[in-house]
Specification:
The protein is α/β, with parallel strands linked by helices and about 350 residues long. The protein has helices spanning about 10-25, 30-35, 65-80, 155-170, 195-205, 250-255, and strands spanning about 40, 50-55, 85, 90-95, 105-110, 115-125, 130-140, 235-240, 255-270, 280-295, 300-305, 310, 325-330, 335-340, 345. It is globular, with a radius of gyration of 20 Å. It starts with 8 loop residues before the first helix and ends with a strand. It binds zinc ion (2 copies).
Length: about 350
């Protein structure tokens, strides 16, 4: 069993090219460093294009952080480029209160013990140039005051999570460098803002209006799903995982159970969360072939945040008949999740 090989190709490519660049001492073009694939918003003659983050946050409990204030500080951080923008792209917020107005609706809710602190989703056109037509951000109140793991009870950590989700919606991926919220390795999460390099990358990404670059997009960001430019857009999502282990041994010790399993079935089971910000849940039925740690029944259920409208890139669907070694967190009587995507190893 090897940890880390289950990372999907996108994450692997970003990490590998970054490592290669550093190993060769090459200062790669800013745009190549940690852009998320080639995803970017299309200006298409609009200058400046104003991307609005829509505040759909609510206070759920007096102990929870004030999400509206966190969102404001996060957006202010991302809007700190030259005169509040990057090239021809500017950034602002609107108070949305449950509607889907705005380009990037941002939500919080108690989504339960899903394993993730936040999810960023973007919808991109299918053409050669991948234009972002809309985005979405979600943070999971479940972990805010939960003891255990690293204890996500600090407002700084949630500023870091939300900052990363919003950064993804601008077209950025992860980086291992310090002092930016796009760093996902350092725990506790403590970088609450973008850094100057993020700003440089966004400046480069949005310096030019290339509305005629044949991306199959055009027409600016999607206002409605039915917009002809956006109807065929594909959703892609990333998560910030709650649990993070530096070694396989540490993950083995921390897991409630470690099992070899065969996938019996996988099915969408419903939505959790307030209407517009809800996420799909898929239940995967697994036959336990061998128990390496802990105790499980012969047949167990795995819950996964996944469904017709959302798939997290490093935690894709399970296929019937496939076999895995799984590092599990028990979330109910016979229901589990993987500790994180590193705890899912295809055999
Ligand atoms: Zn373009
Ligand atoms: Zn992320």
């Amino acid at each position: 069993m090897k940890i880390g090989f289950m990372r999907r190709s996108t994450a692997l490519t970003v990490a590998a090219s970054l490592a290669l660049g550093m190993a060769l001492g090459i200062s790669t073009a800013a745009q190549a460093d940690h852009q998320w694939s080639s995803y970017h918003w299309e200006r298409d003659g609009i200058d400046p294009l104003i991307i609005t983050v829509a505040d759909n946050h609510v206070a759920v409990d007096a102990n929870l952080p004030e999400w509206e204030l966190i969102l404001k500080s996060v957006v202010a951080g991302w809007a700190s480029g030259a005169d509040g923008g990057y090239g021809g792209l500017h950034f602002g917020t609107i108070d949305s209160s449950g509607s889907l107005d705005g380009n990037v609706p941002s939500f919080n809710d108690n989504y339960g013990d899903t394993g993730w602190l936040g999810i960023a989703s973007i919808w991109v056109t299918r053409g050669k140039n991948k234009h972002i037509t809309r985005g979405q951000s979600k943070v999971n109140d479940f972990y805010v005051t939960l003891a255990g793991y690293d204890g996500f009870d600090q407002i700084e950590e949630w500023r870091a999570v939300l900052c990363q989700e919003i950064g993804h919606t601008l077209g950025l991926a992860h980086t291992a460098v310090d002092y930016t919220c796009m760093n996902t390795e350092d725990r506790p999460l403590r970088y609450e803002t973008p850094n100057a390099h993020d700003t440089e990358m966004l400046d480069a990404m949005y310096a030019e209006d290339h509305g005629s670059d044949g991306g199959g997009g055009g027409g600016g960001p999607c206002k409605k799903k039915k917009n002809k430019f956006c109807a065929g857009a594909i959703g892609v999502s990333r998560a910030t995982w709650a649990e993070h282990y530096d070694s396989e041994e540490a993950m083995f010790d921390a897991a409630d159970a470690v099992v070899d399993v065969t996938v019996m079935s996988s099915a969408f089971s419903g939505l959790i969360g307030r209407s517009q910000g809800a996420v799909p849940v898929t239940r995967v039925v697994l036959r336990v072939e061998d128990t390496l740690s802990g105790f499980t029944r012969p047949v167990i259920v795995l819950e996964q945040t996944r469904g017709p409208s959302l798939e997290i890139i490093d935690d894709p669907g399970y296929v019937q008949g496939d076999s895995y070694t799984l590092y599990l967190r028990q979330i109910d009587n016979n229901t589990y999740r993987t500790v994180n995507p590193s705890g899912r190893i295809r055999n």
